[in-house]
Each structure stands twice: as structure tokens, then as C-alpha cells.
Amino acid sequence: MMSAPPAPAQPPPPAARETTATPRTSSTSSDVAAAKPTSVAAPRKQTRKPKPSRTKASAKRSTTFWRSFKYLLDLTPKQVDDFMASYVIYNLDWADEVGMRATLGETYAEKVGDCLRAYYGVLNHLCALGEVEKMYIPPLMDPGNLSVTENQLLYEESIANDLGLKKGDCVLDLGCGRGRVAAHVAQVSEARVTGLNIDPDQVQQAREFDEERGIGNEFVVRDMNALPLPFEDSSMDGFYEIQALSLCRDIPALFAEIHRILRPGARLSLLDWVRLPAYDPSNEKHAELMRRTKPLIGAVGTPSPKELEAALRKAGFVVERSDNASVGGLQAPLIEEADGWFRGLRKVVGGLVRCRVLPAHLKTLVDRLCLDGQAFVEMDRGGLVSTSWRIVARRA
């Protein structure tokens, strides 16, 4: 076994970085007006609770780094090949069934599931080498703090508040990853979270993380596209998901299923990837940016906020809030923060591979991860897409 390199130095603190949020400049006034959030009812009043200790819900970063680093070192050639091949699905879109069938065959839905397992089985460990162990760039909740982790925690605390969770409530986390978000939501609300994820590796890590800390959450291996979900009618007091809906083949059917398992009056919270009104698919520049950004963030579908709202209403929900959760509507400062970290890691890994200290497949993986971060930044600053669109709705 080759010796592992030291962990790269952490990026400088936010005060030392030059990245700042700037107004969007590429959207026309009509684009900005079209992208304004909609709200059917006033947002729920924010009641600030005493901030709990986050120790139990947070992994020690060095421990997580080294566990994932070792896992990546030991990947087989097949695992690496399957991960790289899985990116084919991000050149497709659920809305283009003809393209899906032409590329993946008649059983394209099952093929997408296979690709997702191969993709996330490796990606979750790559993300754990940096500040996106939870595999999402959060909304910019605090413009004075460009820490990805701190903004994640702030957003997760807002989920518990928006859902009105209380001690003993049961809440479903769709696309739960390694269970870190579920741990934090459970800690701040004293609710019990059930996490669902397609990747057995992530679910196993979530269970281990939960058991080590005695949190009491549960985790289920399940494809969200395999309906019905394994829960009783009206069995959940809340539901949330973070940037998972682009992987859903039939969003209206999924929302109808969520409506079934939520009790009357319960709320759901969505934070997701959306295309905004300023995005024009006939614009070659826009289309090229979309082609580059989708693989970076792992998006198959490209829904709009209005499409999500319409699907929720059709399923029987009352949409109470639909807006961009980022202050000023921009995630770009946090995207650049995360991108800068991984570009630094890329240089370290590349140098160690050239010196034959690390196996070549690590460079292949990190190079793939670092592609096209600036395309995502450009789309965000241009108001073309966002991964911080928030919707809160109530089951009627």
C-alpha cells in the first residue's frame, strides 16, 4: 500500500479571500423581473431557537478526510471505469425520452439507476476530501461568512424551522447521502429522521455515523423512482430534500407519493436545482454552459420553479413559499470557495501522481471533479440556473 500524502492545507479564512458577492450583470431587467420569487402565502415567522451544540452532528474533518482518501486509494479499475462512464446520464434529460432510449436503451430508467449508484459510490468520497462532504453547495445564508459548512448548517436549521419540527416528529429525508444533514436536523429539532438513498455505500456510512453518535435516525436503501415508497399513509410529520429532484423521473408522481405519506397539515421543504426564466435553450452560449454545468452538479432533469410549484399543487399541496434562499440570489461566492479548494487539491494530487507517490486513478478522479466549476459560477451570476431554489408547501 502506498503511503498517503498529508491533507492539503485549509483555504484561508473568509476575511483573507477576495471573492465577494456582486450584483448580476448579464440578466436584462425583464429577466430579473421574470425570475422574482412567488409566494402564495406569507412565509412562516422565523422563531429563533437557542443555537444547539453542533458537535454530535458534525464529523471530525480529518477523520472523514482520511477514511475517504483510503477508500479512493483502494478503488478497483472497474469502480473507476464505472464512475467515469456514469457521466453519460448528465448529457441526457428526463424530458427527452427519445434521447434517453437512443443512448441507454428501452430499460433506460434502470440504466440511470445503475449509473447513479456507480457515480455516488465514488463521488461521496471525493466530496469528503473538501468542504462539501454533504454533497451540496448551500444557499448563501450569511454573506459575511463564506464557509460552505457554516452556510450548510444555517440552511439545515432553517429546514427544521420551516417544517415546524418538534420532539418526536417523524421526518423523511429524500436523497440523504451520508446522513450528515439528517443528524443535524435531528439534533436541532429532536425529531426522528428516516433517510432514503439509492447508494448502499452512503447508507452504510450514514448508519455508522448515526450509531457512533447515538442519534437514533434510520436509513433505507431505495431508488426514489421505485414507487410506491415503503412508508404507511400519513406516517410522516415532515419531508425535506436537498438537490435530489433532478434525479427523479416523474416529479408529479413523486409529489403525489409524498402527499400520501405526510399527515394532513404537514409541510415539505425543497431545495433544488432549477432553470430560471433567463435561461434560453436556443442561445448557444446558454446551452453550452448548461452542457458543462449539469455533469458538475450531477443533474439529469432541469425543472423550473413554476413546474415544481404546479406539480405540488396538482398533488394537493398549498405552496407557501417559493424563492431563492441565497441572500441576493447568488451562490457564486460559495461555489468559488468550494471550487478553489478542489483546484488546490488537484495540484497536490497531480504532483504526487507524477512523483509516483499516488496511483494514477486518483488524478483521473480529481481532474473529472474539477471540470467546469466556472461554468456553474457564470450560470449562477447570470441568473440562468440556481441550486438554491427553496419551496415550502403544506399538505392540505
TrEMBL record:
Q: Which UniProt keywords apply?
A: Methyltransferase, Transferase
Return the Pfam families for the record: Methyltransf_11
Which GO CC terms are listed, alphabetically? endoplasmic reticulum
* Protein name, entry field: S-adenosyl-methionine-sterol-C-methyltransferase
Domain (Methyltransferase type) spans: 172-268
| GO biological process terms on file | ergosterol biosynthetic process; methylation
* UniProt superkingdom: Eukaryota
What molecular function does GO assign, one term?
Answer: sterol 24-C-methyltransferase activity
Q: Does the keyword Methyltransferase apply?
A: yes
* Entry-linked PANTHER family: S-ADENOSYL-METHIONINE-STEROL-C-METHYLTRANSFERAS (AFU_ORTHOLOGUE AFUA_4G09190), ZGC:194242
**InterPro entries from the entry?**
Erg6_SMT_methyltransf, Methyltransf_11, SAM-dependent_MTases_sf
Compositionally biased spans, kind Pro residues: 1-15
Compositionally biased intervals (Low complexity): 16-30
Q: Where is this region: Disordered?
A: 1-59
